[in-house]
Amino acid sequence: MKLQLTLLHAEPGFERLRDRVREIAGLLAEKDAIPMVREQMALIQDVLSDAWWQDVTVPMIEAMRRRLRGLVQLIDKNQRKPVYTDFEDSMGGEADFTLPGFAVGTDQAKFIAKARAFLRQHLDHVAVATLRMNRPLTLSDISELERLLRESGVGEPKDIRQAAEDAQGLGLLVRSLVGMDRAAAKQALAGFTNGKTLTANQLEFVNLIVDHLTEYGVVETSRLYESPFTDLASQGPEALFKAVEMDELLRTLEAMRLMAVAA
Length: 263
Hints:
By secondary structure, the chain is mostly helical. It has 15 helices and no strands. It is globular. Helix content is 58%, strand content 0%. The protein has three domains: 2-74; 108-178, no CATH class; 182-258, no CATH class.
């Protein structure tokens, strides 16, 4: 909350508070074995990156605060002192065991984290930039993305195929990992906002969509009925927009999604 106030009032101390938030995110990242934390791992990894803090907005920080505040209690309050021992291990013969429920290969969550880190270091790649700028994706771009991920060594081909299938396409997968350029997201929504006199709540709702696009690349319709959107309109976007406006908004979001699907 102090970080939000500092940003709003352009006061000194932003870097110190930002680093404190990143420190908390780093401690949470160590708790990835906890399901609650693992569900927010994509956001945690983003908060740890420099890219997330570029042009960060108060709504972005508020959304992050609401999603992570319930997890802070899971951080160990005290650092335990190391215990040193002085004895030698005795090892027997080597044997292979198959553990039920544990598949051999790259864990999908780890693959996603590695792929996100790798792709965000290659934002200038033509196909990646095409996705970030919301330009139409081609089959040639898909081939380039496949090659890029395959040669990166972040996962096996089956990991790439599975993640792409889960995301309903490789283009949508990659965009979900690198997000959309903020200016491109605003431009894509300009057709919906231009010519309208929006109320403060309507404008804030649109800004939340821009924040989500910047972070995740797409906004599914169901997402509009979850936090942080419901923090502004508890009954859903229909409480803010007329039916004809809702239809136009959903068409706009679908058009952005289709830009990441090769034709």
